[in-house]
Amino acid sequence: MFVSFPTHFQFLPDAMLDQGEVKSTVFSALNGLSGLGLDRACDHLEQYRCDPWQRTAVARDEMLANMGSVNSGASRGEFAAALSKLIEQQEAEEAEYGPPSLSQLERWWRLVTDPVHVESEVSQMQNAWEGAIRRLEKLR
After folding, report:
1. Closest CA to 47 of 117, 124, 127
2. Distance separating alpha carbons of residues 125 and 131, to the nearest angstrom
3. For the chain, what is the domain count?
4. Buried residues in 62-85 as b, exposed as e (16+ CB within 10 A)
5. pLDDT in tens, 53-82
6. CB neighbours of 80 closer than 8 A, spacing ≥ 6?
7. pLDDT per residue over 20-48, tens digit each?
8. Does residue 3 fall inside a structural domain?
9. 19 part of a folded domain
10. Which of 11, 80, 92, 100 has the fewest CB atoms lying closer than 10 Å?
């Protein structure tokens, strides 16, 4: 159901499911992901609490550093090949680690449902959306 760990959960006051039911459903859906990936996500959420722009910049920089030989002048094909290789390496590493434990899921849940954190994420959604559109327009 998920391919990565969500960075926040915002509960709606008139939702059909209560928070416990949502939590149980989400935990089940996340069971197919890696506990190692969850630890990394939680570390970033804690280190860059309430600063989604810095957190995503650090994640981007780490990804580029892990891609190694790809430089800023790389073609789209070279970049795509290096990114595919990195994803394969991370998936293999995460597969060895296994699914997340209940304590890992609880740690993540506390972080992504914290009201102050959720507000810091939600408040930047419009800026992120508009920035993504501008970026796509530049690529055309």
Report:
1. 117
2. 10
3. 1
4. eebeebeebeeeeeeeeeeebeee
5. 999 899 888 877 877 766 667 777 877 887
6. none
7. 898 998 888 887 788 878 888 899 999 99
8. no
9. no
10. 92
pTM, two decimal places: 0.77
Residue 14 in any domain: the answer is: no
Residues 6+ apart with CB under 8 A from 33: 2, 3, 4, 5, 94, 99, 100
Cα distances (Å, whole numbers) of residue 74 to 27, 66, 83 = 39, 15, 12
Q: Is residue 16 part of a domain?
A: no
Contacts 24+ apart (CB under 8 A), 101-110: 101/35, 102/27, 104/35, 104/38, 104/39, 104/42, 105/27, 105/30, 105/38, 107/42, 108/5, 108/38, 108/41, 108/42, 108/45, 109/9, 109/23, 109/26, 109/27
Mean per-residue pLDDT of the chain: 85
- Give pLDDT, residue 117: 94
Rounded Cα distance, 13 and 29, in Å: 23
The DSSP symbol for 4 reads: S
